[in-house]
Amino acid sequence: MQQFFTTLLAGLTLGAVYAAFALALCLIWRSTRVVNFAQAPMAMVTTYVALEVIDHTGSYWFGFAVALLAGLVLGAVVERGLVRFVEGKSDLNVVILTLGLFVVLHSLAAIVFGQDYKSFPAPFGLRGLHVAGHDIAITGFGIFTLIAVAVVFGLLVALFRFTDLGLKMRASAFSPEVARLLGVRVGKMLTLGWALAAVVGSLAGLLVAGGNLVFPQFMDSVVVYGFVAAVLGGLDSPAGSVVGGLVLGLALSFVSGYAASDLVPITALGILVLVLLVRPGGLFSHVAERRV
C-alpha cells in the first residue's frame, strides 16, 4: 500500500509538470492555431536565464520572475522576428520554422551556457513531508508545482472565457480577416499569444528544473510527454491539458513503478496512438455551433 501511494503522488507531481507544458501548447494553439515545437528549448533558455540571475543575486524568486519576463520577451521576439514572415502561408512553413528554431536554440545554449550539468535550486524542500507522525511521499516543491499548474489553468480559463482580450485572441486565430474587419489588431493578438505561451512554457521549465540538473537538452523529453498530454486532453482545451497531463503522469508513474522504466516511452506512444485512433481531437474535444 505504501508503494501504491508513493507511486500515486509521484505520478501526480510528474503529471502536473506535463500539464504545465501542455497548457503552454494549448495556449499557443488557441491563440494562433500553431503547434510550437520550439516551446521546450525556449523554456530551457529562460531557465538558464533564471539560473544566472539566482547565481548572481542569491534570490530564487527574483530569478523566477526574470525567467517569466524573459519568456514573455522571447515569445514576442520569435513571433515578430521570425513567425510573422511565414504567417498566412502554408501551415507546414510554421512547423518547419519551429523545428529549425528547436535546433538553433539548442546550439546557442550550448555555446553560451556550456554543455556541463548545473544544479538548479528549489524554493521549497525536496524531502517528503512528515505529517501527524506519517511520512507522505510528496515534497514541498511538489505541492508548489500542483498549485502553480492550478493557478495557470484558472488564469487561462478566465482569459478565454471571461475577457474581451481572450475573445480577440481567439478571433484572430480562427478568422483573422473577419477579426480585422471588426477592428481587432490581429498582429498584436498573435504576438501576445506567442508571448503568453512562452511565459507558461518558462514556468514549465522552472518546475522541471527545480532541485534537478539542467543542461541544454533537459527539456527534450518533456516536450514529447507534454505534447502527448495535450493531444490526450485536446489541444483546444485547457481542462483537457491538465487532465491529460495528470492522466499521463499517473500512467507512466505506475508503469515505471510496477513494471519497468524502459516501458515508459512505449506506453506514452501507445497512449498517443490510441487517442488518435479513437478520439483524434482529444478526450475533451467537442464540436459546437458558434453564434455571434
UniProtKB/TrEMBL annotation:
Output the superkingdom of the source species.
Answer: Bacteria
Is-annotated flag, keyword Transport? yes
Q: List where in the cell it is found.
A: Cell membrane
Point out the signal peptide segment: none
Identify its membrane topology class. Multi-pass membrane protein
Membrane-spanning ranges: 6-27, 34-54, 60-82, 94-114, 136-160, 189-209, 215-235, 242-260, 266-288
Keyword DNA repair set for record: no
- Give the UniProt keywords, A-Z: Amino-acid transport, Cell membrane, Membrane, Transmembrane, Transmembrane helix, Transport
Q: Which family does it belong to?
A: Belongs to the binding-protein-dependent transport system permease family. LivHM subfamily.
Please name the PANTHER family in this protein's record: ABC TRANSPORTER PERMEASE PROTEIN, BRANCHED-CHAIN AMINO ACID TRANSPORT SYSTEM PERMEASE PROTEIN LIVH
Q: This chain belongs to which protein, by name?
A: Branched-chain amino acid ABC transporter permease
Q: Where does this protein come from, organism-wise?
A: Nocardioides eburneus
Q: Which lineage is the organism of this entry classified under, starting from the top rank?
A: Bacteria, Bacillati, Actinomycetota, Actinomycetes, Propionibacteriales
